[in-house]
């Protein structure tokens, strides 16, 4: 203590005190401020939910019920989570009112991202469910492509084909092609299991697993994918290869054979 | 061929080295006698006669590229961890067969090209054989004396299918492994012996660690060896029988009109080999085939949708897909009809086309040689049968790809399956009736053309105001070509009594033959071709109609 | 029309009968080979020269293409990819090698064919055919020779030799058949058993962790293997081919089949992943309809109704594994499958 009192006249003492004071204030602010902020966010959140509820009443309630409890035209949305809303609405699958046929197809999205967030917030408020993933969850950092390939073949390829070109299900339903699908939507689809797709919750397909799968898909089914042998022919396997060999392979052979066997033009008699 | 022709041209100047070599060889092999019969052998020109050459050349290409692939391929199912240059599989467990195929595709320079040439050539080989076979069928080229060669060709087609199947199963990838699994299931369905054959083929339970090595020796030695023998036999018979030809002026059943082997067909056929090889090489440069890296290594618990075999097995795949799942349990045994019936049908449908030549020759009772080809319309029943057979085959192909039909044409897979189930029965019948009618219609048109001439498209107004189209009489060449075909009369059952007046028993086979013959050659089976008398009556009268 | 039983009588007259008849009498007679017409190359040396140059050019292009092939092989790295419109990203070496090889071969062929078509004689020649069957005299000679040979061999007379020879020839192939015995073991009951047994935990294929009931959500799809089976095991492939499991969770009320309900745990049901048709890993699960479709041959099973077959070529339902929960709260098997998994076979019963 002696040492301290001896130095309180030091020219730098004032600076030290000031710094300490600042640190204290900062610390206090840091302790108390979040509460304020959280309160502010909560207000914003409830506003968002309120907005979402209005959008819901206009666009969704006719099928899913006024409180999201579901009707005969649409399933209950309690507990589906924000991820499901983001997936369904961003990919244009919902609202499905105009859709016909065995399943609801992907189409043009009619909502802005802000509106989708509002809708998602409202649905999330009805019951806990998967939230919209942040970019680091589906980004390429730290992903094991090869492991993703194995997981894809184990969990996904049976419906979506080796490299995600899609395939048929029963009675006109189908697993869509995954070409050009936003990684976020792939992540959300795995989490929530839209329509007839089963879900792959984090308890059975971990977050790292999902990240690996998305990285694998990007490697084998994107604009940058290299098909070393040339034309991919739809990536559908032997059926298109067979068609190609008949039409272009045998077609070329026959064209050449016609040339080889044809009579050469005779000199014109004048 | 270029060296040979230069040798020949030089031989006129002085006795050169080439001639001395030929003399040496003749003294030991008798090549001059062989060359005398064959060097100027005549081959008729027609594009459809070159379909067989497409097959022959793609077969040679497959052998050449296949030998190259064996230098790098390891037919082993030992598990290895992959550390080659294809990133999305690094660190994965796979069989050595799969990893060596990846090595060929990514790390051997030109390896991918040779693999793709090999596979594309195989698809074209089979497609070529199919079309060649249909050409022979629809023109009646299978008739005496070529029935045996027809069977040789048929065997080549069937063996080609299995060589292809064992070949694409070698890389042990997820797609082909699924096909092998299907094969195992089909073998298991065989009554009594199924499980035993399966255990012997796979060296125990599926998949085991043996089948790649076993398929390998079947694929590169056993089947191609047999096929090579059959190809040589096929070619010897083609040379021996001399080629068939279409009817036309100067072409008879006793001659063959065309160009000599040396030099024209040496150049054309030799050149055609290079053309075929060139086309396949370009296809292999621009179009990817069987990207096993995208499919991944085989695991019996993994699968991809759209699991189909190569096209030539697609018809069998279809039969399996649209068969209902019948299964009978009795006395502790299971009769797996849902799989076994398609297996049997697969054989029966193929046999149907194989034995047709013998059925037809029994119905016609014709034992003469035939070297003039039929136009398909002039053999309506045969043509209709052929089209019906193709219909069955094609419906099988559609059924084999029912999932892709469903996704690409927005149909229900169940609806597609029901369509082919019904189509399997109704399709060939409808195709038969329609084809026969079309053939008869074309025969009538030919008859019209012979009797009334060709429609010239010129409209003439007669003095009394009637409009007529001027018909130009056909040239004699055309008249001959259109009337050269033979027409049989329906066979009749002989008299009920023999020459001694004793009643004889008419055998069932005789009745059947008479019935068949009537449907072939009776009133509904063919249009009688125009006779000289009809022609003269019309042309001498009012020629303008 | 004859009334004989010899169909030959019905055969049409030989075609060549036409030929003898004069044209005026028979307008359908064979006019004979048309006269040969010359091509432009036959009468115009300049045209012939042009053809020669074309052929030479094609052969030269082929040579250049081969040089290009070798140059590509040496110069292009094997892992270089390029973008080629409209094909896409592809391997540069494969593309270059294929095009140059194809070009080299095609030009040789095109040169040879053009040469044959334009410069070699195109005059059609007729060659006589001869009957394939031998003349009667030849046949008689052969038959006489054969009889002579057969007589000299005494095969017909000395029946003992003949019969023992046939016996020996018929028996010896059996050695070959016997030798095939070691191709594989006998089936025994191998197809009836899998690795599953009482108390084996259900291990998640993705995470390699044992599953708890709470991990499995309604509408989710999970694949499981028996504990202790690892990918590196030498018999992994054979075992997973039978033991692969498909786990889904249904609302217990949705389960229509009583046995299925009894064998489930809180709505969690475990079915064999191997199709009962021909053994494809069936797993196209539609969570709303509870149907599962096989991607190979479209057999469809209703997982809410004892995995009964509702469409396609499969002959019987998917086998269900009876499951429960052990003391530590993990899902476990309560025994092996009660019937063989996978494709049906004769001894299945």
Automatic annotation (TrEMBL), chain A:
Q: Where does heme c 2 bind?
A: 156, 159-160
So what EC number does this one have? Answer: 7.1.1.8
As for subcellular location, the record says:
Cell membrane
Spell out the GO cellular component terms annotated for this protein, sorted alphabetically and separated by semicolons.
Answer: plasma membrane
Q: Which Pfam families match?
A: Cytochrom_C (PF00034), Cytochrome_CBB3 (PF13442)
Q: Which residues form the Cytochrome c domain?
A: 47-127, 143-221
Residue stretches spanning the membrane:
243-262
How would you describe the post-translational modification of this protein?
A: Binds 2 heme c groups covalently per subunit.
- PANTHER family found in the cross-reference section: CBB3-TYPE CYTOCHROME C OXIDASE SUBUNIT FIXP, CYTOCHROME BC1 COMPLEX CYTOCHROME C SUBUNIT
How does this polypeptide assemble, per the annotation? The cytochrome bc1 complex is composed of a cytochrome b (QcrB), the Rieske iron-sulfur protein (QcrA) and a diheme cytochrome c (QcrC) subunit.
Protein known as: Cytochrome bc1 complex cytochrome c subunit
Q: What is the lineage of its organism?
A: Bacteria, Bacillati, Actinomycetota, Actinomycetes, Kitasatosporales
From TrEMBL, chain B:
Give the transmembrane ranges: 49-73, 119-138, 150-170, 182-203, 215-240, 261-289, 330-359, 379-398, 418-435
Organism expressing this protein natively: Streptomyces cyaneochromogenes
| UniProt keyword terms in alphabetical order | Cell membrane, Electron transport, Heme, Iron, Membrane, Metal-binding, Respiratory chain, Translocase, Transmembrane, Transmembrane helix, Transport
Q: Record's Pfam families?
A: Cytochrom_B_N_2
Q: How does it sit in the membrane?
A: Multi-pass membrane protein
Q: Where is the Cytochrome b/b6 N-terminal region profile domain positioned along the sequence?
A: 21-247
The reaction(s) annotated as catalysed by this protein in its Swiss-Prot or TrEMBL entry are: a quinol + 2 Fe(III)-[cytochrome c](out) = a quinone + 2 Fe(II)-[cytochrome c](out) + 2 H(+)(out)
GO biological process: one example: respiratory electron transport chain
User: Which InterPro entries does the record cross-reference, listed alphabetically?
Assistant: Cyt_b/b6_N, Cytb/b6-like_sf, Di-haem_cyt_TM
This enzyme's EC code(s): 7.1.1.8
Where the protein is mainly located, per its record?
A: membrane
- List the subcellular locations: Cell membrane
Instruction: Give the required cofactors.
Output: heme
Q: What class of enzyme is it?
A: translocase
Q: What is this protein called?
A: Cytochrome bc1 complex cytochrome b subunit
| Cellular component, GO, one term | plasma membrane
Molecular function terms in GO for this entry? metal ion binding; oxidoreductase activity; quinol-cytochrome-c reductase activity
Automatic annotation (TrEMBL), chain C:
Entry GO MF terms: 2 iron, 2 sulfur cluster binding; metal ion binding; monooxygenase activity; oxidoreductase activity, acting on paired donors, with incorporation or reduction of molecular oxygen
PROSITE patterns from the UniProt entry: RIESKE (PS51296)
Q: Which residues cross the membrane?
A: 55-76, 96-116, 160-180
Major location (coarse): membrane
Q: Which Gene3D superfamilies match?
A: Rieske [2Fe-2S] iron-sulphur domain
Leader sequence segment: none
Rieske domain segment(s): 237-332
* InterPro entries linked: QcrA_N, Rieske_2Fe-2S, Rieske_2Fe-2S_sf, Rieske_Fe-S_prot
The record's note on quaternary structure and interaction partners says: The cytochrome bc1 complex is composed of a cytochrome b (QcrB), the Rieske iron-sulfur protein (QcrA) and a diheme cytochrome c (QcrC) subunit.
| Protein name, as recorded | Cytochrome bc1 complex Rieske iron-sulfur subunit
Which organism encodes this protein? Streptomyces cyaneochromogenes
